[in-house]
Amino acid sequence: MAGIRGNERPAGWLFVAPAVLILGLFMLLPILMALWVSLTRWNGQGSPFTGSVPFAGLDNYTKLFTDEGLARQDFMTSIRNNAYYVLLVVPIQTVLALALALVVNNRLLKGKGFFRTAFYFPSVTSSVAISVVFLFMFANGGAINAILAVFGIDGPQWFSDPRGLVHLFFDTPPSFLTEHSLFGLSWWDWLAGPSVAMCAIIALVIWTTSGTFMVMFLAALQNVPVQLEEAGLIDGASAWQRLRHIILPQLRPTTFLVVTLGLIGTWQVFDQIYVMSQGNPAKTTLTPAFLSYRTAFRDFDYGTGAAISFVLFLIIVVLTLVQRRLTRERN
Amino acid sequence: MTRLRHAALAAALAGSLVAAGCGSGFDDNGSTTTQQSAGPADLKIMIASSGDAETKAVQDAAAQWATSSGSKATVTPAQDIVQQLGQALAGSTPPDVFYVDAARFADYASVGALEPYAQGLDGVDSFLPNLRQSFTYQDKLYCLPKDTSTLALQINTDLWTKAGLTDADIPTSWEQLRTTAAKIKAKNITPLAIGDTRDRVGAFLVQAGGYWVSPDGKQATGDTAQNVEALTYVQGLLKDGLAKYPKALDTGWAGEAFGKGKVAMTIEGNWIKGALNADFPDIKYTVKELPAGPKGKGTLSFTQCWGIAAKSQFKQQAVAFVQAMTSAEQQLSFSKAFGVMPSRQDAQATYQQQNPSDAPFVAGAQYAQGPVNAPKMDSVLADLDAGLQGLQGGDPKALLQRFDKNAKTALGG
Amino acid sequence: MIRTLTSRFLGYAILIFFALVFLYPFVIQIANGLKTEANAAANPLSPFPDPLTWVSLERIFSGTGFPTWLGNSVLVTVVVTIGRVAFGSMAGYALSRLQFRGRKALFAGLLALMAVPPVVLLIPKFLVLNQLGMYNSYSGLIVPLLADATGIFVMKQFFDSVPVSVEEAARIDGAGVFRTFWSVVLPMAKPALITLTILSFTGSWNEFPHTLVSVQDPGLFTLPRGLADLVSGSLGAGTQYPLKLGAALLATIPVAIIFVIFQRYFVRDTTAGADKG
């Protein structure tokens, strides 16, 4: 045996070498480089790794949190927008995915395969291509407004209406909300709710991801012991009671996973914003990911752009760690 | 956990070694760029095209230059020139020649991305002085103005007649613009499409006697009575449905809404001529000067220059190319193709002769206000545009105050 | 009996409603790609083009960079898929089976990398490609995508679940590590390899953010990048929805075909992903 194991050492490293090299060069190294750039005022000319690039210390970070100015205002606006986005997307997609899984899993219904395919298909298509389709559907004279018109509703101008949903209902802000501010945005601005344009993007994302999560729920449902359900039937429990007391407890780990995966994913929204709105109208679809891209590549402020990336990174890492910790506890 | 830390440390060390070993991608100083001063060049030209008409005209002109000079010249229209150029400059692979908008010029010049080739170049004096001023940074003229254009009012004559209007209704004042627009709206036609940016709405500020910044461009002058009056007026038009932003009309820009016959009037620049010709050849329209405001006539002028990258390998050939593109004859042929006005004084007379219908644009050039051109202003101006997108439900005074506050930081005073 | 009937009816109603919601956008995409611009603007909902026209599809090939994007996309997808399958299965095997110093640390590092969100790598990747002189080239477009942490993880999990006895037998027969891997292990890993291939194919075909920061020459654009530029289009290009929808449709078709053929493996991906963490 020793002889056999003996040649495994070099072989082992040889086997992992290509992957290690690529991941190291294009994931680990870039993160270190960007960390450095986030501490400088590099303007995109020449190399950022020479002595001539002015060192900024933590300025790029304090700009986002403590210094009054446009950088903080934009950053906080993007955090607000993304928070509303998360707040709507995660619960809706989770509930929708669960509901669809329950219906598809119903033993009385045929055609399970077809419906599963239909619901799952959107999530494998290109985010850019699908954004194009939704852009067309949410045009002012587009399909969505045509459907709304059937019900006598005069649809909004989806991608040019910058008003938040909350602002739509309360026209004039109470003065105590406009007088106080937090991180450069007034309370009234924080409470704006997602804009009409953001709602269109929210609809798109729920539509694309629900299928994936439905498949996860389906897999978990198939593991619910049949005896358990039958026991419930014999006890004369209603459908709702069976769901509430027998099925849902069994699905807890999956639900938990779906929620945390959703939380992590929704903080990364980028493709859809880039294609559909570029942060417009009036910055109401600006998200941290898009803001960091724009700050670096359009405003030549690579330091601040990288700093925004790292703050976003931190948010996501914290969410991931929480998920892992909790998953471990449950297992 | 310790294992993880070791792994991270090892990887970090390995990473830094690799970085140190291969740090050759960036070109650390422009002066070492090998220059191929004479002979055939392979020029890359990036343009921000106003449409197919312009793309084709520039490509044809470049091809002609290439044949006569024995060089290669590839013209690429950029979808988003600011972003593409930004990446290209940072990546040390900039195109040799590219359009530089007056509003972005200072940004490029201040970071040393542009070659100041125009300073002291022969024949520079024949370009219009105010345009040359737009491309001067720290007393150096960096690049030659490509052309110029101004905003004017376009009127769809078919819809005009349909709304029962005559030449007497053509608005020459703000009051008249409102009353005429109301008459058009009464006939269920959208009266006016106006772009939702400072580059369109700003014209009203000039007509009211104000502007975003002081004449020397060094101070923000947003929150003034004149500007508030102008924005309140535009807001009134939007609120009453007398004017609409292009997106509200399902179009990419106001010219498209106009070309599709969705609106009776629009406010665009010379470029609309070429675009309408190419995309909507059947539309019938006339061009008039913008209606005057409380402080008289006012419009905005725009200009771009032919920038040459400081890192270009073919600077000499690039200058020759730009000179060919800015000759009086070539400028007049561009004018014909996509409607812009020449940037040379010696071509003006011929231009006016050839294009009598462009008289309102030419007249506008006399009282036009140029763009804001100070470095570091782009994000401030983008924020202003964001405010203007929400003008209908916003507060003009707050919008202007916000601009002042942001601009003050950027302008450093 | 009546209760079962109503619940069955209700169930089908819900399913059909949502099937419409999930599939009708694709119908709209196909139909409007074949409409004239005026017709698409007037009847965006109608599934029947009236008149039916191929003009937009023809313009996609003659008037845009579509053929170039398509070529680049095919090249990138093929090379990246081969790379990911090869490197992923090798690394996954080594991490699962081979004894070598640093293996556990490597696996911990891999788990950490899986948690790195791709969007925060936009600026970093640009910096490193620049530093290595790979910006705006095919190598910059392809090489960074050649290995992915999730793929390696999926392969490692697979090898962990397979009994080691067959390989041991081969080894005792005197076969070296490479022979064993090539002629015993890989054939056995076919289902996992198919999953990895599909994962890599769809992942690289749909990849967008990486192309945004690795190239800027239109000659190097892939389909998603070209499509994104077409949509955010330049002034005066107009809305041209039939053209854009047609291009989006053509970009969706290959994935759709793969999806229909290898459906069951797609479902496997999701559950494989569910185990991680």
UniProtKB/TrEMBL annotation, chain A:
Record bears the keyword Transmembrane: yes
Zinc found in the keyword field: no
Membrane topology: Multi-pass membrane protein
Protein location: Cell membrane
Main location per the UniProt record: membrane
The entry's keywords: Cell membrane, Membrane, Transmembrane, Transmembrane helix, Transport
Entries under CDD domains matching the protein: TM_PBP2 (cd06261)
Residues covered by the ABC transmembrane type-1 domain: 79-323
PROSITE patterns: ABC_TM1
Alphabetized SUPFAM superfamilies for the sequence: MetI-like (SSF161098)
Pfam families assigned: BPD_transp_1
Membrane-crossing residue ranges in chain numbering: 12-39, 83-105, 117-139, 195-221, 251-270, 302-322
Family per record: Belongs to the binding-protein-dependent transport system permease family.
Protein name: Sugar ABC transporter permease
Native source species: Paractinoplanes aksuensis
Lineage: Bacteria, Bacillati, Actinomycetota, Actinomycetes, Micromonosporales
UniProtKB/TrEMBL annotation, chain B:
Keywords: Signal, Transport
Stored InterPro entries: SBP
Signal peptide: 1-19
Family to which the UniProt record says this protein belongs: Belongs to the bacterial solute-binding protein 1 family.
Name of the featured protein: Extracellular solute-binding protein
The organism of origin for this protein: Paractinoplanes aksuensis
Upper taxonomic lineage: Bacteria, Bacillati, Actinomycetota, Actinomycetes, Micromonosporales
Automatic annotation (TrEMBL), chain C:
The entry's keywords: Cell membrane, Membrane, Transmembrane, Transmembrane helix, Transport
Membrane topology designation: Multi-pass membrane protein
One family name in Pfam for this protein: BPD_transp_1
Domain ABC transmembrane type-1: 70-262
Chain ranges passing through the membrane: 9-27, 69-93, 105-123, 135-155, 176-201, 245-267
Compartment(s): Cell membrane
Gene3D superfamilies linked to this entry: MetI-like
Protein origin, superkingdom: Bacteria
PROSITE patterns: ABC_TM1
Family of this protein: Belongs to the binding-protein-dependent transport system permease family.
Official protein name in the record: Carbohydrate ABC transporter permease
